[in-house]
């Protein structure tokens, strides 16, 4: 489906550029920046494909590699101007996680994995590139600390199966679920929503 | 075997709660805490299954997911009281590594892997959930620094093959090997035993 | 091929000892040091084999395990004297990445993966043991920051396919490509060459 590939490329661009920005802050060299961009962009899908034992997408389709090389060059050259693209990048990233969640979920469903596991697989596809990026940059992954990000993916996954249960057609399903991911993520950022953080009450008492 | 599943669930609970506690210390949000609990509980088994190319247990049996969700909620709600459960948690964890070592080892033996590799697979099953937990929380894994933990697993593995060589029946074998893991770990904690740490003698000289 | 196995063992020794040295600096215990040595030595090949869905080399050939145990013991015992072996270790490591790049690349080519992906697989084989070592020691991987290391592997990979395109025989190809990796790496260290690091121009402006 051409439209899906187009969205996939937008997501890859956004993920790659978020990798470039994180790696530049850590003062990595050119190769390090490219590798972080690469792993941020394909890491979630790679972990998904290892878990479900599917062929790994970027190893069989050079489009990903070329898009990531292009995005890295673009981001490195225009690094001083990227602030002007911030909203576009955020939008691409949000579209990316919506799409990756649905694609991952559908791959899991084809393998007849149970619904909650399929939601987990979709969420892993969308989120683990960013987790790997943060681990390689020696940070606690940002999605574990202060963003409604994976939560948006899980919300979309639940809507997908709820609609399915109600008998909605699969393709229509997928579009709505992806949109739910995108809308939840947008609302969370616009209204600065966060999940509660549960501190340990009496750390002294341990 | 029902008894084995029961022990497996105890281990999963202990591993999940150790993940919750580590994640809470890092001030993660609710989703982050759940993910760390999840990865701590299933990470070792997942890496084992990837290495031996077996189906990944938690993807085909929802029990793990539900037990981890339940443990996370329990730990989050009673976080101020968990200190009273410390001994039970330690005991569950110790039973968990004994069991996981033996299960992992037996899976490797079925694939006719050599004895030292089977011991490695068992040890990975038991220990790498905790390693992943510490990496995601941006710590050097605790088992590399100051605990007789993996060493207990390796000791149990060696006993397993020694008994096997002496002609002891496989199931009896397994029970004894698991018990060795548990006893070595208990003794190490009770008597505060540690492996020697080998410092570099002349760091200045490098 | 006996000669290849011999080079492979030299590379394994060098990688294992680099793991031992990093782990000792972090004051790990004996088990932690061994595990870091093990993962540094086999990590790149393991990730390669997971990605290309091949059997994992160290699980089916005990030579790796024994070489790593021997290297760890040697390094731990002679830790104060390792400074005298520094050049040999550097040379082993350099031979190791040359060899691992070519072996990884050839495995990918046999699976008919595209040329740039095969180069990536070769580079991953050579470099990711060191990346995993640094992650487990809670450092930003050194190859992302300040060394021409992966770049040498990529250069060798490009030469391999260029010669292939020009009709050079495959085995002759492999020797030249491996030599290119080694020479680029040696020159980079001798002349202290580095890739440019691209700092963000206006970090304040973000």
Strand percentage of chain A lies at under 5%
How would a textbook summarize the main sheet of chain A? Answer: none
Order of helices and strands of chain A: HHHHHHHH
Number of helical regions of chain A: 8
Uncertain spans of chain A? 200-206
**Percent helix range of chain A:** over 70%
Assembly type of the chains comes to: homotrimer
Task: Indicate the mean pLDDT of chain A.
Answer: 85
Structural class of chain A: mainly alpha
- Note the gap between the termini of chain A: 55 Å
**Hey, which two chains have the biggest interface?**
A-C, 32 and 34 residues
Global outline of chain A: globular
Q: What is the rounded Rg of chain A?
A: 17 Å
Give a count of the beta strands of chain A, DSSP E runs of length 2 or more.
Answer: 0
Give descriptors for this structure:
homotrimer, 206 residues, mainly alpha, globular, disordered C terminus
Give your account of this protein's structure:
The structure is a homotrimer of 206-residue chains. Chain A has 206 residues and is mostly helical. The first copy, chain A, has a domain at 2-145. The first copy, chain A, has eight helices and no strands. In chain A, helix 2 packs antiparallel against helix 4. The termini of chain A are far apart. The interface between A and C is medium-sized, with 32 and 34 residues.
């Amino acid at each position: 489906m051409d439209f899906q590939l187009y969205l996939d490329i937008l997501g890859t661009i956004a993920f790659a550029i978020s990798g470039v920005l994180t790696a530049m802050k850590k003062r990595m060299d050119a190769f390090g920046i490219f590798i972080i961009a690469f792993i941020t962009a394909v890491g979630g899908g790679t972990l998904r494909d290892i878990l479900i034992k599917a062929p790994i997408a970027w190893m069989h389709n050079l489009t990903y590699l070329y898009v990531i090389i292009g995005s890295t060059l673009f981001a490195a050259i225009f690094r001083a101007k990227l602030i002007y693209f911030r909203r576009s990048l955020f939008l691409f990233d949000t579209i990316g996680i919506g799409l990756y969640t649905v694609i991952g979920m559908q791959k899991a469903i084809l393998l007849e994995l149970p619904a909650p596991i399929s939601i987990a697989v979709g969420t892993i596809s969308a989120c683990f590139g960013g987790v790997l990026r943060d681990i390689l940059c020696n940070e606690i992954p940002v999605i574990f600390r202060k963003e409604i990000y994976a939560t948006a993916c899980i919300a979309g996954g639940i809507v997908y199966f709820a609609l399915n249960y109600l008998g909605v057609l699969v393709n229509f399903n997928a579009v709505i679920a992806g949109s739910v991911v995108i809308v939840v993520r947008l609302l969370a950022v616009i209204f600065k929503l966060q999940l509660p953080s549960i501190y340990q009450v009496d750390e002294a008492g341990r």
